[in-house]
Specification:
The protein has about 1100 residues and is of the alpha/beta class. It contains 27 helices and 50 strands. Helix 11 crosses helix 12.
Length: about 1100
């Protein structure tokens, strides 16, 4: 049978652990003073077990008493380096009948992410790792606070407010800090500021008092606690201080009774520091066992770099087979057993080397070769017919594996006509035998050629000749009805990094591999239909493959069969793709690709942006879009990650934007006569099946409810992916006469589409909010008029509310709404990624759905029954993501004034320790008076009167959240009857008289909106190109432009444009995504008329172009 990779790791608790209960069975109390000098093994007889590598030699290990831990930070997907660490720990857990602790190191609230906790647990499940305990470092935050205070009381730690840059210099120069000899009282005074998270406390840290003169930099008074005034995913805002990893690690290892701390050699210099904490706190000592870090050639493991590949579309997601993530390598065909054997074979070597991928795949081959069933596949477009004299069509039963009968048998067909690969045909010689695998010898009688090219071959049976020693061995398939052969694609991959080892200062973007994925359509063995997703097989004389997508016959919903997709599994040979019957192996360009620098085409003449502060964003928009976006929406308090992948919590700051969009749109459609309603979120299976053609487009994304408690439902119920199937049966009941028309309903609701692509908050989520309007009319003219009227409202949402320019147009036949006559759309553009994004759609459904659901009315003039004309239209919370992507900068969100929850924030300033209570009250009262004055002008305004934060901290906070105007009001402004207004869009400062506040602030808000729209419009215009030349087209695409080009409108041509623009190579280095160009829309405003001499943009298309179409990469 094909290889299956299964595991059954149970879900761990996500709310921490009861340490008293879970650790009751572990050896020795944590506060024992056991010596670091471990004795040699006593209870372990190493000869009783198979010694693999040198890992059995674990100092101090005793059977049944070994406790190890795997402590990842929940900030990303596990990669092969993490896999080595996890599997090594599991190895010792199993070798010594010990325990494995899975611990999330969540000491840094900025990096800890619940989503990635679930991702890591799923990755461990894939690796078949079963921890005995699940813990979090944060389970011990309270205990570590006590230990920190203990060290301060014993003068082994001190508080330090030295500037970080100066502290770094002092440590390098071995100079003691001015605070090193503080009194205990002074240290606790600063410590209390840190605990409260004050401005002063945020400038402090706690340092261990070790040895500033040590040649080991790790012992020069390292930081053990820092003040981070931000919420933690598990503890919320309970703590304002967090321990460093170096302080927490030895404590938690001791508390959890870890006997052996496995760490890579890069931590070697920190070992003395680790044991200093253990000794200072009188804790038991784990043994530190070091091993070499796993480095692979042609690979980057940095989360930031891998995210860049995902964000720019060069890979399909975090499980792309070209990625070094656990998901990626397993998807490509690596087995957990093969991975284990590779890691174990490295032994306890501490040498830092770069391993070639060939080595790991060679180990994998040893695992899969003995059990992978054999099948046949030929290149579909590169095969030759062989006519076999005297052969009859019959079935034979043959082994699936030539050396392993347990794999079973399969059925093959022989007959008078068979196919072979063209490359094999070129090796045949007339008059000689050739061995057709699993059949026998055939004698080649005649090789027919035209213009030196083989066209067919005549052969005769020679099965009685069983001499196979010197014959050419061929794979083949019997000619059968075409429907018997499953549509099959073999996919081959190459390295995404073209250089084996990158230098320390080399930019990885200069060595991006191109054409790293190649698909070949195959004529495949009908037996492949029996394979399941995840099976590992061998295509004889081609290599091993993993079934990434299994065959499925034509369903009632889709109407077409699902093809088989096979991923090639390298086997350790340098030439990974077999040559028989195959074109050349796809490879990365060996030329060094120069990195394309991020530049701006023109200088912004507006006031300069401020330098980034520590309270702001750590990632930059132009350098790491994915990390930047995640930080903007989380630190800007728009999104909270949730423990169901692809689902997110919309915080009030984000929901207010949606509320303002709803308020605007609701008012407009109410004036048009549209009424609100609500339909159930559950859809019956029968209703979905009635709408096959429409549902086929997103059938894989439909989520189903199958259980009620522990009982199976009589019939699965779908969670609403859209509401046509729910609403239209009711329309059929409600509409009987022309008097019932038009019916115009809209509902604001949530929908679920279980996306398989990498989720991204607002942009691509599994649950999202939207409005969906569904209307019915007596005439086509009325319906179509509404389509364009609604589209104009969607445009206004973007331009008039969000300050984002859009392109209005019609979708191509390929991209239109399934089941509709035509789809109109507004398309936005995100220059940071070079991608277009669909903003909203308005569909003219014609009579397609009314015929499907029998929605008819009696025409008053003809007295005959007629089908109604229908529309559907919708816009979703994706708008918020587009707004952030377009306007936000490296300081945070930039909110358009018309949708901002708070349009103006007042920050009182100039209050000092010498300010009298009377003056303080006068200033605050004046601020509140100004607040009321502007509220009367219908301005959404708030005042920040918190006394535990400085004005500077508040400035950063509200800039991060994107409030359009910040008003600064101090004692001097009070005397001068004025205030300072600071614009968020360009940081311009304006002094405004109090008497003009009611007029100047509303005018300033309008100016901000217009400035944002003008800036975004320029950005769109600068990135919009028009061309009739294919080479220019692909060059513009790779430079992150969207392109207007003449197009014939043909679906097959559009598919070819997308395919060929992704494969196109140029001599220049391109930094754009690798995906091909997709049609965004056919703009209503055409750049020019199509001329008689114009040709379709694809060079191989002979069709006459019909219109200019907007192409680009898209979300």
């Amino acid at each position: 049978m094909p290889i299956k990779v299964n595991s059954d790791l149970k879900n761990p608790p996500t709310d921490g652990v009861d340490t008293a209960e879970n650790f009751s069975s572990l050896p020795k109390d944590a506060n024992s003073t056991k010596s670091n000098k471990q004795e040699s093994p006593t209870a372990l007889d190493v000869d009783d077990r198979k010694q693999e590598g040198k890992f059995v030699d674990l100092p101090g290990a005793e059977m049944g008493k070994v406790i190890v831990r795997f402590p990842p930070e929940a900030s990303g997907y596990l990669h092969i380096g993490h896999a080595k660490a996890a599997l090594l720990n599991q190895y010792y857990q199993q070798a010594f009948n010990g325990k494995l602790i899975m611990r999330f190191d969540d000491t840094n609230p900025a990096k800890e992410n619940v989503h990635f906790e679930n991702v890591i647990l799923e990755d461990l499940e894939m690796l078949q790792i079963k921890p005995d305990l699940f813990t979090y470092t944060s389970d011990y935050f309270e205990l570590m606070l006590k230990y920190c205070e203990q060290l301060m009381k014993e003068r082994k730690a001190y508080a330090d407010d030295t500037d970080p840059e100066l502290m770094k210099q002092e440590r390098e120069q071995r100079v003691e800090s001015k605070n090193r000899n503080n009194s205990i009282e002074k240290n606790f005074e600063m410590w209390n500021e840190m605990l409260a998270g004050t401005e002063k406390g945020q400038k402090c840290c706690i340092r261990a008092k070790i040895d500033m003169s040590s040649p080991n930099g790790c012992l020069r008074d390292p930081t053990i606690y820092r003040c981070k005034n931000e919420p933690h995913p598990r503890t919320g805002t309970k703590y304002k201080v967090y321990p460093t990893y170096d302080f927490a690690c030895p404590i938690v290892d001791a508390i959890e009774n870890v006997t052996h701390t496995l760490r890579t050699m890069e931590y070697h210099d920190r070992d003395d520091q680790f044991y200093w904490f253990i000794d200072a706190l009188k804790l038991r000592k784990p043994y530190i066992w070091e091993y070499s870090r796993l480095n692979m050639t042609n690979t980057v493991l940095s989360k930031r770099k891998l995210t860049w590949f995902v964000e720019n579309g060069l890979v399909d997601g975090w499980d792309d087979p070209r990625f070094p993530t656990v998901r990626g390598i397993l998807r490509r065909g690596m087995t957990v057993e093969g991975l284990k054997q590779f890691i174990i074979a490295q032994g306890s070597s501490k040498a830092v080397v770069f391993m070639e991928w060939d080595k790991i795949w060679a180990f994998n081959k040893k695992v899969i070769d003995p059990i992978a069933p054999r099948y046949i596949a030929l290149e579909n477009d590169n095969r030759i017919i062989v006519k076999v004299n005297n052969a009859i069509l019959q079935a034979l039963e043959v082994p699936r594996h030539p050396k392993n009968n347990e794999v079973g048998t399969k059925t093959i067909w022989v007959g008078p006509e068979i196919y072979i690969d063209y490359a094999d045909a070129e090796s045949l010689k007339e008059g000689e035998n050739a061995t057709f695998i699993n059949w026998g010898n055939l004698r080649i009688k005649k090789i027919h050629k035209e213009s030196e090219k083989i066209t067919s071959i005549d052969a005769e049976l020679n099965l009685s000749d069983t001499d196979f020693k010197k014959t050419l061995k061929l794979t083949w398939l019997c000619k059968q009805d075409p429907s018997e052969y499953p549509t099959t694609y073999c996919v081959y991959f190459d390295h995404i990094i073209s250089k084996a080892v990158l230098g320390k200062n080399e930019d990885f973007k200069a060595y991006i591999g191109h054409e790293t994925r190649k698909e070949t359509k195959m004529l495949a063995d009908p037996e492949l239909k029996k394979c399941q997703k995840g099976d590992i097989i061998q295509l004889q004389r081609r290599g091993f493959f993993k079934v990434d997508q299994a065959y499925a016959p034509a369903s009632e919903i889709s109407g077409s069969e699902r093809p088989i997709v096979l991923y090639f599994i390298p086997d350790g040979h340098k030439k990974e793709i077999p040559t028989s019957g195959l074109s050349k192996k796809p490879s990365c360009s060996e030329k060094k690709q120069k990195s394309k620098k991020v530049t701006t085409e023109s200088k912004d003449e507006s006031p300069r942006l401020k330098k980034q502060t520590r309270l702001g964003l750590e990632a930059k928009k132009e350098e790491n879009l994915a990390d930047w976006y995640s930080q903007v929406i989380t630190k800007g308090e728009m999104i909270e990650y949730y423990d169901v992948s692809g689902c997110y919590i919309l915080r009030p700051w984000a929901f207010a934007i949606w509320k303002n969009i709803k308020k605007f749109f609701d008012a407009k459609i109410t004036d048009m006569g549209v009424k609100e309603c609500y339909f159930p979120m559950f859809v019956s299976k029968a209703a979905l099946e009635k709408e096959k053609d429409h549902i086929a487009d997103f059938a894989p994304e439909v989520a189903w409810v199958t259980k009620s408690g522990e009982s199976d439902l009589a019939e699965p119920i779908a969670v609403r992916p859209t509401s046509e199937t729910v609403m239209y049966p009711a329309y059929s009941k409600w509409i009987q006469s022309y008097r019932d028309l038009p019916i115009r309903l809209n509902q604001w609701n949530n929908v679920v589409r279980w996306e398989f692509k990498h989720p991204q908050p607002f942009i691509r989520t599994r649950e999202f909010l939207w409005q969906e309007g569904h209307t019915a009319f007596a005439t086509s003219k009325e319906a179509q008029e509404e389509v364009y009227e609604i589209l104009e409202l969607y445009k206004q949402i973007y331009t008039d509310l969000l300050a984002i320019p859009v392109v209005k147009g019609r979708k191509t036949e390929k991209e239109k709404f399934p089941g509709g006559d035509f789809t109109t759309t507004v398309e936005a553009f995100i220059s940071a990624s070079g991608r277009g994004i669909q903003g909203a759609t308005s569909h003219f459904l014609g009579q397609n759905f009314s015929k499907m659901f029998d929605i008819i009315f009696e025409n008053p003039e003809t007295q005959e029954k007629e089908y109604v004309y229908q529309n559907s239209w919708g816009i979703s919370t994706r708008t918020i993501g587009v707004m952030v992507m377009v306007h936000a900068d490296n300081q945070g969100i930039v909110l358009p004034p018309r949708v901002a929850y708070t349009q103006v924030i007042i920050v009182p300033c100039g209050i000092t320790a010498t300010t009298s209570n009377t003056d303080r009250k006068t200033l605050i009262d004046s601020c509140k008076e100004l607040e009321k004055q502007l509220q009367a002008c219908n301005i959404r305004i708030d005042g920040d009167y918190r006394d535990n934060y400085s004005p500077g901290w508040k400035y950063n906070h509200w800039e991060l959240k994107g409030v359009p105007i910040r008003i600064e009001l101090g004692p001097k402004d009070l005397k001068a009857q004025q205030f300072v207004a600071v614009r968020r869009d360009n940081f311009e400062k304006l002094t405004i008289s109090r008497s003009k506040a009611s007029t100047d602030i509303p005018e300033l808000l309008e100016k901000i909106h217009q400035n944002m729209l003008t800036k975004a419009t320029k950005d769109l215009t600068d990135h919009l190109k028009t061309t009739k030349n294919w080479k220019e087209f692909t060059s513009f695409l790779d430079s992150k432009y969207i392109i207007m080009a003449p197009f014939c409108g043909d679906i097959l041509c559009e598919e070819k444009i997308k395919t060929d623009s992704a494969r196109e190579e140029t001599d220049e280095a391109v930094q754009g995504p690798a995906m091909g160009a997709k049609s965004l829309c056919i703009p209503f405003e055409q750049p020019a008329e199509i001329q008689e001499s114009d040709k379709c943009i694809h060079p191989e298309c002979n069709n006459k172009p019909k219109f200019y179409t907007l192409f680009g990469r898209s979300y």
